[in-house]
Design brief:
Elements (H helix, E strand, L loop, with lengths): L5 E5 L16 H12 L4 E3 L28 H6 L21 H22 L2 H13 L1 H16 L10 H4 L3 H10 L1 H27 L3 E7 L7 H5 L14 E5 L9 E6 L3 H6 L3 H13 L2 E5 L6 E6 L9 E4 L2 H12 L4 E3 L7 H9 L4 E4 L21 E4 L8 H8 L2 H11 L6 H11 L4 E5 H4 L29 H13 L31
Parallel strand pairs: 1-2, 1-12, 2-3, 3-6, 6-9, 10-11, 11-12
Antiparallel strand pairs: 4-5, 4-7, 7-8
Length: 524
């Protein structure tokens, strides 16, 4: 898929401002879209929007198909008569600058349950009909997900592969009995999904109407404790007790002597091939309901992945196994047409990964914070870029650029940075933003923390850290006229407002067919 030259901002909705402890799809979300439009941004990148559990990571979701009820706007519910304003009177005194997930769990979810209970007997005929239609339309995943979550509630959050065997193995009589016993909880989970999708669809339509596309994120692997694995165990390497036999991770490297043990179950790719990758096609269609473009996390896993025997204490004792590669993406392409996919191709990338990415003309990723540890040949330096890439100052897994420059970078990296950009380093974040926006990469994105020149304390995620991630929020006063004017100037100066190319042809928009990766170029 070919993209016009454009730019955008990385911000997960949980980071939006608001009075009930976490960003949601309320008025602040619409004001955020207005900010993007006023600065001529074309992209809003978010992290996975699925329901989160222990650790609060959006990359360990209870479902690849469901939405996160934490993001539901309570204010909008009140306006539509779906929530009694009085239920908000005893809201806790939430912090403004970070998410307290524990309090969100113990306060917001019960509020939503009370609203669901009231709706079951008191919703208007129009809304009841809409809810019924939603449940019927999404029954393919919603029925199992709602039952899965109700059973988790009944088992005090225990993982499904520890439940009693009739439920673990989905024995029909056990499922029928569970549906009868937990009907109220099932209704609540369906109600929450209806609210999430109707609010997100409205917000996405508002963004699209202003020329802003949403980039979403698909983690290549799913959580072991998820509705996905419970309902489709045949798609994963599980034993007769439904325990994983092999799990995902990455091998030891320069950064970690023992590698990274993620623990996600691995796919039975050969089995998936025999049914035409049906589960993955459903997942892709579900993602494209939420997003306009999809960033595929750990893209290299489709070419080859690190397989670790279950029970290993580290990722050291593993082996490389060939992934589905070209066969998989050919099937997806036949289903979707031009692939609206961005490839997260960071880390140790082998030639087969590059070949797979190029074969389907998928933009890869460049992260500028990685560019200063070697020399002028470094592939992350802007002068080595090709057209078909997405360039970031940093991502959700990086330190903020200010934090990187002031604390994380080595003395040698800081020296290289200063010499490369002819700067004293006093404004490192905007130095990298300017470098990204001015580069030949077709898409340029920066986290909001970098636009605001914030330090390490606002970092979204530190890989390997068990707690303290995914909590950062900004307050509405952070978006001011100075920021709007500066981002607008940078965007127009470096030609990332698509409107300026209207009617001027392909070359004016930054297309360079002979150099584009996947159409002639071969950039690592």
């Amino acid at each position: 898929m070919d993209y016009p030259r454009q730019s955008g901002v990385l911000l997960h909705p949980t980071s939006l401002p608001g009075q009930f402890g976490i960003g949601s799809m309320n008025g602040a979300a619409y004001e955020w879209v207005d900010f993007l439009a006023s600065t001529r941004q074309s992209l809003w990148q978010v992290l996975p929007l699925g329901p989160t559990g222990y650790g609060d990571s959006p990359y360990q979701s209870f479902s690849s198909f469901a939405g996160n009820p934490y993001l539901i706007s309570l204010e909008d519910m009140v306006e539509e008569g779906l929530l009694d304003q009085a239920l908000l009177a005893d809201a806790p005194d939430f912090p403004a600058h970070h998410v307290d997930y524990g309090t969100i769990y113990t306060w917001k979810l019960p509020v939503l349950h009370q609203a669901a209970t009231a709706f079951a007997t008191g919703g208007t005929p129009e809304l009841q009909a809409e809810f019924t239609a939603f449940c019927a339309d999404q029954a393919g995943w919603l029925e199992d997900f709602a039952l899965f979550m109700a059973l988790k509630d009944a088992h005090n959050g225990a993982a499904w592969n520890t439940w009693e065997m009739p439920l673990r193995s989905r024995k029909a009589s056990a499922l029928t009995q569970a549906k009868n016993e937990h009907a109220a909880a099932i209704h609540t989970h369906k109600f929450n999904q209806w609210l999430f999708f109707r609010q997100w669809s409205k917000l996405k339509a508002y963004a699209n109407a202003q020329g802003i596309r949403i980039i979403g994120d698909i983690p290549i692997f799913v959580a072991m404790d998820s509705s996905d694995t419970w309902t489709s165990p045949q798609e994963f390497f599980l034993d007769t007790e439904f325990q994983p036999t092999v799990v995902a991770g990455v091998p030891p490297d320069y950064f970690s002597a023992t590698g990274q043990l993620w623990g996600n179950p691995l796919y039975r790719w050969q089995h998936m091939k025999t049914n035409g990758y049906a589960w993955w096609l459903r997942r892709m269609h579900a993602a494209l309901r939420l997003y306009d473009l999809i960033r595929v996390d750990h893209f290299r896993g489709f070419a080859g992945y690190w397989e670790i025997p279950a029970g290993e204490p580290t990722a050291e004792n593993g082996q490389w196994v060939q992934g589905p590669g070209e066969d998989f993406f050919a099937v997806v392409q036949r289903e979707l047409g031009d692939l609206p996919i961005l490839a997260e191709d960071l880390g140790e990338i082998t030639p087969d990964v590059i070949e797979l990415r190029n074969r389907f003309n998928l933009p890869g990723m460049k992260v500028l914070q990685f560019a200063f540890s070697t020399d002028g040949s470094d592939k992350f330096l802007p002068h080595n870029f090709r057209h078909n890439f997405v360039v970031y100052s940093g991502t959700h897994d990086n330190d903020t650029t200010r934090g990187w420059y002031e604390q994380s970078a080595t003395d040698e990296e800081r020296d290289f940075f200063r010499r490369y950009f002819h700067t004293d380093g006093h404004e490192a974040a905007w130095t990298l933003i300017n470098a990204a926006w001015s580069s030949v990469a077709v898409l340029a994105i920066a986290p909001l923390q970098d636009l605001l020149n914030l330090d390490t304390s606002t970092r979204m995620n530190l890989p390997g850290r068990a707690t303290g991630n995914w909590t950062w929020r900004f307050t509405s006063d952070a978006i001011n006229h100075w920021l709007i004017d500066r981002l607008l100037e940078t965007t127009t100066l470096y030609g990332r407002d698509p409107a300026i190319y209207a009617g001027k042809g392909e070359e004016a928009g930054g297309q360079s067919g002979q150099d584009a990766v996947g159409t002639g170029g071969r950039a690592p």
